[in-house]
Design the sequence.
């Protein structure tokens, strides 16, 4: 018997606890007359002409691969729950990547269950149904539809996602009674995990999480299209920023952050990560997200930002821009060194290459420059062996990119960092040099200068494609591009 078959809707208990109201709400209660009035007079809004979501074929193929990997086991993949921001307000919900990858659905409290059947699995998506109009939930509950918006009915969801849909409110109880081997993706739904507490093990659940992470290493055609869409919006967001740098100078880095955010919300779901709008010495702080500093002519702006599409795929692009439109001689020297390192890194991205090759190629160029400038004692091989260049280029040169900005993070080391590049993989190449404002080992004029250049690179059958090539990278091209945007 499947979980879906075990779930039989129960008749609401007349003694059921009433929907809670705010402690200091202005209405002390609901009259019988109002309650009765709210039950009727509503049009039928069921959507009967829906088509499956664009990625329905891809999500079905992903579920099939998951089924083949874990035959005979019940697999439980939750979307997650709302998280409280403060008191009775919640953070914007973002479904777990594992759940969204396998279903295309993004609603809170959802759970995908794959039940063993025959030689494979039968999938069911468990969701909250439409708000109940009989008990007043739709207008009295804080998550009722008149407060937060209409949900899809279970029938609508089944059509959209190509998966039979059932009421998630009965799932935990059914899982407690279920028998046979079970795996769950942990960390998203405490209620579902509690229902399975005596049926799962951390080791087996980790195997499920690792498999789903590695499954995303190679992107399908739909995913590549979404990544390009994210990058294209990001390019427009960078153009927006350049056009308003004078307003940022009059205010702060927040103006830059807000300008890019507007593009992300208009064309996508959100930003894919906290925007780094780092002006002047803040560019030397790798993850500067406070964005509350001054924007000054003559200094550099390091903008690291990405639009996330409505399907959760994010771009991750960085440009370092002269705020007044022209690099100084020293800024240009440092920038050109980073550009040269990035060029070497991008050239190393190709099918059959080791994943580490692009990092090693970029680091070698940076080490050579640091030795050439007299900032570290050579030879270059010694610098690289001891990692001495890392004082000024702390981070790795890139990472996988997809539904997470640092995608596939749970993959095995041998499949990721120690792995081999394949067509369909997408990664960032982002070398940088950062001379901290208090670094006494470098000449004073270097201090407070930070430069990073980052692009999103797709591995192709014959090499690679720079998805973000529409944004200029070479220093003279950056200056010309900024001048054209400022008119």
Sequence:
């Amino acid at each position: 018997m499947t979980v879906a078959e075990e779930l039989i809707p129960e008749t609401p208990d007349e003694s059921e606890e009433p929907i809670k109201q705010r402690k200091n709400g202005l209405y002390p209660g609901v009259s019988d007359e109002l309650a009765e009035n709210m039950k009727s007079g509503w049009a039928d809004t069921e959507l009967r002409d829906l088509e499956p979501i664009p990625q329905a074929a891809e999500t079905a193929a992903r579920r099939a691969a998951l089924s083949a990997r874990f035959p005979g086991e019940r697999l439980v993949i939750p979307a997650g729950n709302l998280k409280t921001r403060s008191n009775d307000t919640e953070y914007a919900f973002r479904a777990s990547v594992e759940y969204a990858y396998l279903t295309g659905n993004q609603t809170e409290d959802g759970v995908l269950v794959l039940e063993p059947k025959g030689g494979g699995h039968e999938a069911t998506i468990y969701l909250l149904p439409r708000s109940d109009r009989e008990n007043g939930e739709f207008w009295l509950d804080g998550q009722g539809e008149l407060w937060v918006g209409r949900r899809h009915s279970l029938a609508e969801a089944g059509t959209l996602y190509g998966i039979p849909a059932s009421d998630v409110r009965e799932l935990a109880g059914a899982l407690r009674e279920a028998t046979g081997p079970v795996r769950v993706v942990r960390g998203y739904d405490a209620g579902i995990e509690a229902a399975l507490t005596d049926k799962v093990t951390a080791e087996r659940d980790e195997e499920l999480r690792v498999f789903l992470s590695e499954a995303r290493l190679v992107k399908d055609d739909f995913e590549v299209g979404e990544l390009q869409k994210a990058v294209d919006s990001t390019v427009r967001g960078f153009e927006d920023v350049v056009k308003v740098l004078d307003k940022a100078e009059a205010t702060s880095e927040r103006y830059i952050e807000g300008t890019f955010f507007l593009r992300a919300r208009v064309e996508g779901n959100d930003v894919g990560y906290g925007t780094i709008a780092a002006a002047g010495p803040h560019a030397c702080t790798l993850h500067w997200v406070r964005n509350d500093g001054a924007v000054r002519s003559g200094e550099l702006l390091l903008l690291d930002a990405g639009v996330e599409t409505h399907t959760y795929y994010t771009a991750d692009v960085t440009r370092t821009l002269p705020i007044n439109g022209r690099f100084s001689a020293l800024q240009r020297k440092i920038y050109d060194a980073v550009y040269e390192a990035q060029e070497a890194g991008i050239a190393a991205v190709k099918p059959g290459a080791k994943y580490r090759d692009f990092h090693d190629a970029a680091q070698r160029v940076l080490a050579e420059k640091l030795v050439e400038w007299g900032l570290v004692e050579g030879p270059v091989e010694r610098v690289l062996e001891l990692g001495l260049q890392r004082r000024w280029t702390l981070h790795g040169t890139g990472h996988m990119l997809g539904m997470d900005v640092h995608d596939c993070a749970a993959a095995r080391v041998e499949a990721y960092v120690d792995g081999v590049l394949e067509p369909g993989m997408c990664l960032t190449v982002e070398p940088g040099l950062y001379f901290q404002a208090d670094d006494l080992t470098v000449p004073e004029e270097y201090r407070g200068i930070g430069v990073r250049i980052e692009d999103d690179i797709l591995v192709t059958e014959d090499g690679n494609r720079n998805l973000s090539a529409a944004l200029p990278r070479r220093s003279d091209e950056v200056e010309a591009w900024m001048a054209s945007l400022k008119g």
